[in-house]
Structure of Calcineurin-like phosphoesterase domain-containing protein:
Amino acid sequence: MPEFWPEPVYCPDRGRGFIEPRRGGKHRHISVYTAQWRCSLREFTVAVLADVHGNYLALKACLDYARARKIEKYVFLGDYITDHAYPQRVMELLYEAAGRYDCRFVRGNREDYMISYRANGGKEADGSVWRDGSCQGALLYCYENLTDRDIDWFEGLPVYGSWQIGSAPPIAFCHGSPYKTKDQIYSVEALEKLAQLPERILLKGHNHRFFSFWHKGLRAVCAGSVGNPIYCRTRAGVVEVTPLAKVAQMLLMHYEGGRWVPEYVTVPYDWEQTIKNLELSGLTKRAPVWAAMLRHNVLTGTDPFGRVPQRAVELYRLDTGIKAAGWAGVPEEYWVMAAKEYKIELVPENLW
Ligand SMILES: [Fe+2]
Ligand SMILES: [Fe+2]
């Protein structure tokens, strides 16, 4: 079967039936049944990339992999930047992909953080500023390494998009939910709204995991994470190395036989350099525990981000009686204590 049949279009001369373009500007007439049959056999593949989080080496490996499979259509699902070192290199890869391929982009909650920080004149909405340390150091580092052009580009991205490719059913795509970058897709409100979408398939990011579920005739497919894939949460007291250690994730959506079929892919990449970059960029000094959690995630495929900051807040409260309003109010020493409970090493050599 050829990879791509020429697009049948309505015949301008006869007013009905289809023509099939041929080389040299010629065409031939085919019946509507033949056109439908050809459409049903046609195969497209769309590469779907979510949650790069600054890990440009993981993104590069995924783009190289997709190019080797001759993929020309891409959907990018947000959270391109923040966390890993050298976000400007992610931006270069995205701009290059936008110029070379047929791409669609939405923005994630991390892009929203950058947009609103700039909109407030380099401040949070409450007037506070980001400072070095494990809570905000990685955000501040990222903000300093982006240009106005980058943040302008984020501002131009939609929260939700829809893509009709050829005769395939349209696909919807978003970061958290089609209505908010940071929505949790399983919330009652989000699920209620999902049923109102005109599309029957939704590609999403934000969860950093591969999964798929059906809800009232709509199939939602989560594309995992290019830069920070998650197999399970990090547990206190143990270092678990999972199948998602040292790999990037991406989703391929194939349109074949008249339906969309997901293929979940893990891609090896230069994870050693990604870890070295945390040191080289200064992130290990500017956000010590956050950088250590990033390293831990790369090396194990587990997620310390949901547990360790909360534990730091708790340890601070137990020790001082002060209930911090957020992570930013917790002194660094409590982040270090929480990291130790979860066996997250601040000295890289201990985990190699
Ligand atoms: Fe994310
Ligand atoms: Fe997100």
